Every structure is written in C-alpha cells, then in structure tokens.
Amino acid sequence: MNKINDKFNKIKILIVGSGIIGKSNAFELSNYGFDITLVDQDEINNSSNAALGILMGTIYQKRNGRSWRLRQKSSELWPKWIKILQSYNPKLKIDKPLFLLTNDLDKFKRLTKFVNSYPHDELEIVEANSYNLNQINKTFDGNEFQGVISHRDGRINPKVLLDTLDIALESKNIKTINNKITKIEKNNKNWNLKLKTGEVLTSEIVILCNSLDSLQLINPEIHKIKLKPVLGQAVELHYEEKNTNFLTLPSPLNINGKNLITINKETIIIGSTDEYNFKPDELYINELFEFLQKQPKWLNKKNISRRWFGIRSRPEGEPSPILKTLEKGLILCSGFYKNGILLAPACSKWVLEEVKKHI
Ligand SMILES: Cc1cc2nc3c(=O)[nH]c(=O)nc-3n(C[C@H](O)[C@H](O)[C@H](O)COP(=O)(O)OP(=O)(O)OC[C@H]3O[C@@H](n4cnc5c(N)ncnc54)[C@H](O)[C@@H]3O)c2cc1C
C-alpha cells in the first residue's frame, strides 16, 4: 500500500445518492483507499437511468468559464476511464463521432465560424452536398441538413456504464446500502446520518450526490441553495419498412437540438424534453416529433414502442452543477442538469481534491 493509501485508509466517506454522480465519485475515491459507503433508496428510477448518454464536450461553443473547463476535463478523462472500466466490462465503449446537423442556415454559418476557429479540435464541417449526408437525407425524406462532425464527442450507453461502475465498485469493496438518508447532523468531528429505517451511520466525510433531494438534508437558513426540477422525456420508435434502415444513420446524431440514437435497423431513440415539472406532460412529447422542416413517415407518435422520463435538478441563480463545500466534511455535488453523464469524471476529480482538504 502506498503512502496516500496509508493516509486515507481509515477515513470514512459516505456518499448519498447512487446515480452517475455518486457512483463516479465512489469510483474516483476508491483509488485512494478510503472506507466508502454509497446509500440510495431508489436508484433504478433516477435521472441517470433515463439519460441518453451523449457526450457533447468539444462541440460546446463557449470556450471559456467553468462550464467549458469541466467539459474539457471530462472529454479528456472519459477515454481514460473507459479504458480502465473495460477491464470490468469489455462491452463498455464510447460510440464516436457525434454528428450535429441543422436545417437552419444561420446556425450553420455560426457553426462553420466556430469550427474554423478551432482547427485542431477534430471538428469537420459537413456541407449540404457532402456524401456523408446522402443516407441521412434519404432517411429523413427530403430534409436537407448541414452541420459538423465532432470526432472527439460521442455517446456512452448509460445503462452499460452504470452496470459497469457497479461491478468495479463491488470489486473495490465499496459498501452499498439500499435505504434513504432522512437527516444529517454534525457530531463533533463526524457526521451522523439517519436512515429511514431508524439506524444511524457515522462518517467523517459526507458527499451529497442526491440531486433535488440534497436540499432536504442541508440547513436552508445557512445554505441559500435553490434547485428546480427539469423533467426530460424520451421515446423509442419502432418502424418496419423495407426502405428505412436506421442502422444507415450515424449514431449519435443531434438534429436541430434533438438527440437520436440508433438501436437497430427498425428502432431509434429520440430525446429529450425540458419540462419544469415533476409530471410528464403529453404536449411536450410533440417536440420530439416536430423538430424538422419536413416530417419523415416514420417520425410519428403511433410508432412509439417505449417512453420514459427522468427528473434532473437545475440550480436557480447559479450555474449547473453546484460543486461546494458546505461545512467541514460536507460536500455538495448536485444540480446536474443536462450533462451529468458528460461531466461526471471532471466533477469527481474536483470532489477528490476537496476531500483531501478536509483531512
Ligand atoms: C431524458 C434524459 C436524457 C438525458 N440525456 C443526457 C445525455 O445525453 N448526456 C448527459 O450527459 N446527460 C444527460 N441527461 C442528464 C443526466 O441524466 C443527469 O445530469 C445525471 O443523470 C444526474 O445524475 P445524478 O447522479 O446527479 O442524479 P440522479 O441520477 O437523479 O441520482 C440521484 C440519486 O439520489 C438518490 N437519493 C435522493 N435522495 C436520497 C436520499 N435522501 N438518500 C439516499 N439516496 C437518495 C436517488 O434515489 C437517485 O438515485 C439526461 C437526462 C434525462 C432525464
């Protein structure tokens, strides 16, 4: 065991919330020999399980500020993480590249200017007459797109990712508890965490990764943090017709802001909506069918074979995500809105550095 591990060995860390953020933090911290426990009462229904898993790092046009730095860092880290995680599950991969297309000429002009400003970022302009678009235009029944191929961006299947992290965490002896934390209290140098079933856990460091519900565990008098729910719906379409083969499309594909992921010849996923609510609204589903100038035959609500939603948390009055030390030993890693999967590795690095300051 090395020196770092000796120093951190007996330190207890409790992570509340076992979505992609909680699991990624556990994965990063597990390399340092901490005694880690993950607590979650309902991880199957969280927003991480609803995600499409698109990684839009390099394609992000605002090239300054914290959001860009987190994207940049995560884009660098994801290939490294995947390489390590493949030793637990060889099926885990990043599907690259990402196609970002539009019907909007002004948007395309802005994209072209952006791509030309960053010639070393493996961004490729796709003009209307490009051979890359032949099959896409055909599947989209006469819509004419232009756009960019981002060779560094792509998609990770979130379910495969979450399952793989579970295997990795188990092999690293990370403890998991299927329960809800109802209260957190300071107890000298430690934190007492009360479970729904009444037991109390004690830990030196607590990391709140429980999205919207993190507000229920912190003192609103001291910490003026606001989070609002942003529900996202997604649909899977099944369409069988001899001239339509979704496998001929690039995947992942973003057209006019909607993400499309090919599952097989006859099945495609489209997402997602942004609804400031806790209940999915039927009207918003229309957005997933009305984002093109001309609607191809297959893009029809009657072809929905599966639909689902997840609830993300968006900070009010400050940017997403919220990465803050609230008190000694109490770290908040929440408010992940659209890009929680993308940002997970960079945020886990931030948490690690923060944890070291608390020891
Ligand atoms: C339809 C949809 C599509 C998306 N697509 C993408 C995409 O393409 N790319 C991308 O990067 N992001 C995407 N996202 C966003 C991404 O899913 C989120 O940003 C990310 O999942 C947030 O992860 P999280 O771990 O913070 O929250 P969650 O996954 O919601 O996890 C929070 C966990 O905390 C647990 N919890 C809450 N309270 C307690 C408590 N008191 N005690 C114990 N446990 C508790 C919950 O049970 C839950 O499991 C999408 C989201 C949706 C809904």
Chart the SSEs and their pairings:
Layout: H1 3-8, E1 12-16, H2 20-29, E2 35-40, H3 47-50, E3 54-55, H4 65-85, E4 98-102, H5 105-117, E5 123-126, H6 134-139, E6 146-150, E7 154-155, H7 158-171, E8 175-178, E9 181-187, E10 190-195, E11 200-203, E12 205-208, E13 227-238, E14 253-255, E15 258-264, E16 267-271, H8 282-285, E17 304-315, E18 322-327, E19 330-334, H9 340-357
Parallel strand pairs: 1-2, 1-12, 2-8, 4-14, 12-19
Antiparallel strand pairs: 3-7, 4-6, 5-6, 9-10, 10-11, 13-16, 13-17, 14-15, 15-16, 18-19
The structure holds flavin-adenine dinucleotide.
The tally of helices reads 9
What integer is the average pLDDT? 96
What structural class should be given to the helix and strand makeup? alpha/beta
Major β-sheet profile:
8 strands, mixed
Overall CATH architecture of the largest domain:
3-Layer(bba) Sandwich
Please count the beta strands (DSSP E, at least 2 residues each).
19
Low-confidence sequence ranges: none
Q: Which range does the strand content fall in?
A: 25-35%
State the fourth-level CATH superfamily of the largest domain. FAD/NAD(P)-binding domain
Q: Roughly how much helix do the residues carry, as a percent range?
A: 25-40%
Present as ligands are:
flavin-adenine dinucleotide
- What is the rounded distance between the termini? 19 Å
Radius of gyration: 22 Å
